Amino acid sequence: xxxxxxxxxAATPVGYPRIGxxxxxxxxxxxxxxxxxxxxxxxxxxxxxxRATRARLAELGLDAAGAAPESFSLYDQVxxxxxxxxxxxxxxxxxxxxxxxxxxxxxFALARGTAEQxxxxxxxxxxxxxxxxxxxxxxxxxxxxASTRIVDLFTESLEDGTGxxxxxxxxxxxxxxxxxxxxxxxxxxxxxxLDDVVAVxxxxxxxxxxxxxxxxxxxxxxxxxxxxxxxxxxADALQRSIGRLVETVPRPQLLVTxxxxxxxxxxxxxxATGAEAVHLDLTRGELPSAQQLAGIGSTQxxxxxxxxxxxxxxxxxxxxARLAELRRRVTEAGGAADAIxxxxxxxxxxxxxxxxxxxxxxxxxxxxxxxxxEKIIEIVTLAAGGIEPGAVDGPRSVPRAFDGVQVPSxxxxxxxxxxxxxxxxxxxxxxxxxxxxxxLPDLPTTTIGSFxxxxxxxxxxxxxRKGTLDDAGYEQAMKEEIARVITLQEELGxxxxxxxxxxxxxxxxxxxxxLEGFATTEHxxxxxxxxxxxxPSILFGDVHRPAPITVGWATYAQSLTPxxxxxxxxxxVTILAWSFVRDDQPLGDTAxxxxxxxxxxxxxxxAAGISIVQVDExxxxxxxxxxxxxxxDYLDWSxxxxxxATSGVEAATQIHTHLCYSEFNVVVGAIDAxxxxxxxxxxARSRGEILEAIDPGxxxxxxxxxxxxIHSPRVPGAEEIADQLxxxxxxxxxxxLWVNPDCGLKTRGYAETExxxxxxxxATREVRAEVxxxxxx
Length: 777
Description:
The protein is of the alpha/beta class.
């Protein structure tokens, strides 16, 4: 055992935003990657961001040693943990230094790829909109302490004050999220290396103890999700990992967190590991029973009573009542009722920094909101006591009752929906009508929607928003960019074109700004991955469409070319997933409202002469519940909302959808149930894994497995793309295969975009010729 020191403070969140209130991390990274600053200046800027963050947390009341978690990461917390223990694929062996360690440039090489190597695969972090990098490990991966960044950050925090609490993804979650490295023998499971990984974690804990850390936080969110291991196997793995680390001498005390849901009957196994503190998500998980707490002993509980994933203000009397009830149950189980800290359910990395920067939100809405800083104030307030408890089963957030929250006409329309509103004629009839109407070749080429957003476009949008560019000037600027994009696509030889979306700041916020029931922020930035940040809108009320949104831009683009131009919409599930959504009614009810609003837009596009409409649902997999028992209900309402949006058109109108960056092989059946005529899907970054899940007989419609990973600056060669197309053709067949990138091109530059699309078209022509040649014999 390690020597006992002070318990965790009475209030402590389990994570905090790391991008900076003005996106300082994003700006520093992108300046460094572009060569505008050198590494010394990059290090200075990120050091100043960490210093300011620690000062802010102390100001909010987290001024005791270990009260503030060390949440900083240059790119991704899963990558940090992988590098700490040396999980580095063989193909990136060259980024290691002579001493086996890895520096910032090596980290960025794995995250973003190099000219020679594609980056690590990226996918969604549990059921959030954060993306993590998937570790790749093999039976012979040389596991060793390859990065001491976590130790360096703790030492740095001592210089800034009392010292933060180092945070690391736990060893069990790390390996459950990992994949077998290419070339690993069949049957190898990353968990086969658990003992080896734990040995390096023990070495790291020893180094942190030597540096003076009193507490270390190990995040084990995998315990809140159904896994490939049964519960008895998970319990055994907990003992082999956390239990073994508890036996490490010397070491700091351990806080094990279990965010994103309840862990239910795994709690006794977690308590049995001997970890000094255990965190529970008590917003998605239920209060543990006295029976589940029977082994608590001296273990300190960290109660995640403040929701860390939403922006709604906590109803403190309800939270105080639940805290009191938890103390009663701990006492009944033989634990110490006063040994409970108040915390957030999950890391606050999923919400913006602070409401203090917002000036345009209505006062009545602000009164119901809390961002990261305000949530820390909530946990400090709860921990201090003095809140009169309400009912344990009362509302979890402050009720909202102002205008727009409930709109009778919207509710009446949703109530009148029938199953006929979600049906189209049989696909065979649609396919023939579309073949005649569109006249497309086999392997038609297209892009996902957005094109690079150059500085002039962003400047025009900003000027229009500020009022320094009038409506006519703004419309002219957008039309010039649309014309440029249409001309470029025709010159490149693409078959189905897009207008490039220059008018859109974000694929969800744009619609939120044009639908009733939403509010948008000025500075509500949240990290999606690396330097990519989004500004989720706030869906507070009943949703409806006051006027057409995209029709004018789409019809203008179509007027410039004889080739079909896709109408581009964001789907209802994705609008919900990438917004902060009301919690006062079921998600399915809100999704139906959004689906009906989009249905109006789809039918208006069709009436205006747009023959292809794409309704993107990249978040379909993202919202899938972590527990299998809840999947059917979610998939039922999510598929229904999409079909509500897309089933009001004629057979000849082709409906596309797009999905990206998630393990979609898990929901192939739901993707099929969407009933889209064409589905484009991420495939390049995961090196075609989705193809293995596609049964030609079970998925009879068009599909476009992405052949270019657009989240990396790397330009794929024509032959590389052709090889991917040949694999896809073998799995899908040329009559159903579409050719497209993995995702939209908004974040890319024009030079790499043009080069990659030329290669895409060249590869398509080559593979088409291979298909046509045997047919001519």
